Amino acid sequence: MVWRDSRTSTSAxxxxxxxxxxxxxxLGSELLLADGNFTKDSPTVASDGADYLVAWVDLRSVGRIKxxxxxxxxxxxxxxxxxxxxxxxxxxxxxxxxxxGVYLLAWTGYPTSTDGNVYAVRVSPADGALLDAENIPxxxxxxxxxxxxxxxxxxxxxxxxxxxxxxxxxxxxPAGRVVDGAGFVIMDQSTPAxxxxxxxxxxxxxxxxx
Length: 210
Description:
- A hairpin with a 6-residue loop joins strand 2 and strand 3 (26-34).
- The strands form four sheets. Strands 4-5-6-7 form a four-stranded antiparallel β-sheet, with no helix packed on it. Strands 8-9-10-11 form a four-stranded antiparallel β-sheet, with no helix packed on it.
- By secondary structure, it is mostly beta strands.
- Helix content is 0%, strand content 50%.
- It is globular, with a radius of gyration of 17 Å.
């Protein structure tokens, strides 16, 4: 698990620790993944079955997606400060998962103060290198799209994101191909929701959990 922490600075750093799934016991020591010299936020983590990739937002002047690789065998930080996006504008809400031999990292980018777009990039589990020459645009329609989440079904990745009204999604192949173009509607705010199922919207976080 990973979290932001301000224990040693007025700005927040990123920490991590392994936790045993069967009983929640912490294994080993906490790891400092990124210091608090500049505030870091929104950490996310995934594993390829051997090691871990951690991503977060680095808020020095303009938000950037940074990352670290952590050994699952020795609890050591293999590399940190990795550049995990090619954005030139503010970014937020990273989400990562592993499947098909690669990590897929998605996030929201803000090319203007009123538009939020959803992008992704594939990351090598071997060294944290970006496997795509450019960010993969998942949704760049006018308006605000944010808080993506990522899952893998054994064949493709599914990325979902919210707008002010709806929950959308698209599939991405491990080769980096966007399967469904600008995406499809998962839930429409204008139609009644099934009993007990939350509607997507400004007050409902990321909408449906993956």
